[in-house]
Amino acid sequence: MAYTPTIRQAVGDVRRCLADIGITRQSSVLREHGRHEPSPDAPLVLVACSGGRDSLALASITATVCGTLGVRCGAVIVDHGLVAGSSAVADEAAGRCRGFGMDPVIVRRVVVPSTGAGTEADARSARYDALIETAIEYRAVAMLLAHTRDDQAETVLLGLLRTVGLDALAGMPRVIDRDGVLFARPFLDLTRRQTTEICETRGVEWWDDPTNGDAADEGGLSTDLPLRSRVRHALLPYLSHLTDTDLVEHLSRSAGFAQRDKDYIDERARSVYERVVNHPEDSSSNSPTVAARIDAAALGGEHPAIRGRVIARALAHAGAGASSRHVDAVDALVANWHGQGAVRLSSAYSACRQGHVILVCHDRVHENR
């Protein structure tokens, strides 16, 4: 099989990704070249595969790498049922993954609920739920996602359009623990053009999701397209032309530096959180329940970047969905308190300061009226 420079890069990226999360060669015997059958108790790595070029390229490369390491390699295909023929697409993707030698190959058919967040967000939530459930069921050590450098650049722009702060600039992390399942992205240094090349070189046919649209749809600006598709087909090409730079490369590299800084701040905030926040057990169903206690005196001496993260995490853990304005208002109770009243949060939650403690409360009586 031909090993082009792109395929060699992809193999190296997958190897490094697996090594970074502790997945290495299972036996010194496997130093010999060639594919090796893994033992039944070898670690299992799963690849989330949609049938598109990115995920099929990742599945193909990962199957090759795992075969040299003596690691089991499988795939999960989630059928959202949102486009005509999706069941057949899922089955075809499963067949290709089996052709790579992957085992197990699991097809999950899900019903995408309508939560009001939009079809794209609802589908993503349903997909992650299915991936997490499958990874836990099969005791996989990791789930690999096929996001590329292009996806990273799009995510940064989407983050800047939708929210504010360092988290938007950081884009997608290379590794993240979600509900006890380790997700990793080996291809963040590869472009979509390169994943296409991998598929073409290896003779792998792929499926293009019609909901992604293309530049022919009003120059990529059609409001019938998801926002990510408009960013992909219109905004990114326009900005690259305007600046005469490879904006995908620039944004993805910037995301790497921002992620490094974010990791440090998050770790610092996590340490402070454990020291200044506690969540009492629910003790009453007929009166306001204290969902979190924040030591305002201890938190007040921290940097605003740390305070904001601690507050946001405390509110999220308590179940009080909070915007940046809510976090800023609670932060004022910490760092600029002059006797102001309670901060009203969403879902019948509030935060008030009593002495040196901020209480995050849930008014169940109010909620049930």
TrEMBL record:
Ranges where the tRNA(Ile)-lysidine synthase substrate-binding domain occurs: 295-353
Superkingdom to which the source organism belongs: Bacteria
GO CC annotation, single: cytoplasm
Keyword Nucleotidyltransferase appears in the UniProt entry: no
Annotated ranges, domain tRNA(Ile)-lysidine/2-thiocytidine synthase N-terminal: 45-214
Enzyme kind, highest EC tier: ligase
Gene3D superfamilies: 1.20.59.20, HUPs
Keyword Nucleotide-binding carried by entry: yes
GO annotation, biological process: tRNA modification
InterPro entries xref list: Rossmann-like_a/b/a_fold (IPR014729), TilS/TtcA_N (IPR011063), tRNA_Ile_lys_synt (IPR012094), tRNA_Ile_lys_synt_N (IPR012795), tRNA_Ile_lys_synt_subst-bd (IPR015262)
EC number: 6.3.4.19
Molecular function GO terms recorded: ATP binding; tRNA(Ile)-lysidine synthase activity
Pfam families on file: ATP_bind_3, TilS
Alphabetical UniProt keywords: ATP-binding, Cytoplasm, Ligase, Nucleotide-binding, tRNA processing
Catalyzed reaction equations: cytidine(34) in tRNA(Ile2) + L-lysine + ATP = lysidine(34) in tRNA(Ile2) + AMP + diphosphate + H(+)
Principal subcellular localization: cytoplasm
Binding sites annotated in the UniProt record for ATP: 50-55
Subcellular location, record wording: Cytoplasm
Family classification: Belongs to the tRNA(Ile)-lysidine synthase family.
Chain's role: Ligates lysine onto the cytidine present at position 34 of the AUA codon-specific tRNA(Ile) that contains the anticodon CAU, in an ATP-dependent manner. Cytidine is converted to lysidine, thus changing the amino acid specificity of the tRNA from methionine to isoleucine.
Domain notes: The N-terminal region contains the highly conserved SGGXDS motif, predicted to be a P-loop motif involved in ATP binding.
NCBIfam families assigned to the protein according to its UniProt record, in alphabetical order: lysidine_TilS_N
The protein's name in its UniProt record: tRNA(Ile)-lysidine synthase
Organism: Bifidobacterium primatium
Highest classification ranks of the organism: Bacteria, Bacillati, Actinomycetota, Actinomycetes, Bifidobacteriales
